[in-house]
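Minutes, project check-in
Item: structure for the 146-residue chain
Input as provided by the requester:
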Amino acid sequence: MRVVLQRSKEASVTVDGKVTGKIAKGYVLLVGITHGDTKDDADYIAKKIAKMRIWEDEVGKMNHSIKEHGGDILSVSQFTLYADTRKGNRPSFTNAARPEDALPLWEYFNSTLCALGLHVETGVFGAMMDVKLINDGPVTILIESK
């Protein structure tokens, strides 16, 4: 499992002209799932995200978690994170999990974040989405379970 975390001042996802998820400050998570990923992978990454200290304290040091700082999550399923670009000019996506495997794990991941006390908004699995965000910092971090 692979997640690109972007600290944001605000973010939203729109599908067919309708906003499906919107947050003020918090994290935008682009979530990629590959073959063999399990609930253990989702648990590991969710706990890492909940505890990660990437918000500044009173002296400007990254020392606060999202719960300490206050903020929400916008989770977007992103199979293209597993693109293989080694050959040719058209990426291969065979490393991405099939939708019937990825959707339940993405939903489990989101529910795990909620169980950890975070408010989660989402995009729409498998849809063409317009994702807007103001990246704060910018702070962008790649988290992998393997």
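Outcome recorded: The radius of gyration is 15 Å.
No further action items on this chain.
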